[in-house]
Amino acid sequence: xxxxxxxxxxxxxxxxxxxxxxxxxxxxxxxxxxxxxxxxxxxxxxxxxxxxxxxxxxxxxxxxxxxxxxxxxxxxxxxxxxxxxxxxxxxxxxxxxxxxxxxxxxxxxxxxxxxxxxxxxxxxxxxxxxxxxxxxxxxxxxxxxxxxxxxxxxxxxxxxxxxxxxxxxxxxxxxxxxxxxxxxxxxxxxxxxxxxxxxxxxxxxxxxxxxxxxxxxxxxxxxxxxxxxxxxxxxxxxxxxxxxxxxxxxxxxxxxxxxxxxxxxxxxxxxxxxxxxxxxxxxxxxxxxxxxxxxxxxxx
Length: 300
Known about the structure:
This protein has 3 helices and 28 strands. It is an alpha/beta fold and 300 residues long.
């Protein structure tokens, strides 16, 4: 065999070996998922040493994970094997920057109006003056909750990508004399899967608030949504409002069944946006429109 032939064989073997090694390394390191224990340890160590945590891969968890400092998830995903837990809990941060991971309920068996467990994708508790980016949250009983527990969740700027097929995609809830006020929400899709059913009670995109307990300082007020896209006819009410001076600007009301302005709600405004005329034409706004306003470009 010539030297050229020998060189060609060696070259081919080296290339095949390199490709095999690449896939071995990729499967072992690049595409591996971390555990919940590893994720919590990474957060605890990074927050203690650096005041900042960066996720390096996806994780699979079956217990709650507590985020204690600034985070950059780099578009990573946390898969949740127990649909009854509060998956990611962020509590007590001020002036934080949080780029949170996608959170997917891997235990869910959605369809026909059933949601597995009573879990929550992301819980934000007593967070103030922070920049928060929420990616894709799917198939939980509660997608994202903002809770003021004895204190406030206030003055936050929250960017949402997609809250998908959570029974209640977003809930603002004061607890124990707490308050949830003055938060801004930018963009985002809010959707449900059509095979869940239609006009389902207890299913909503946005809820303010589920239960206004007597000892709270009051229901949510002065929260604003800019360019939210509220999609589909699965919920009986796309938005349920128990609060004051909350506003939706140029949001998309696509095929929604209606909006519920509950008793005691006033000063709330829905300002322009696709589908607003249909809400008015078909009397799809339930509540007192003498103290709340739905403003259309057509109906002055």
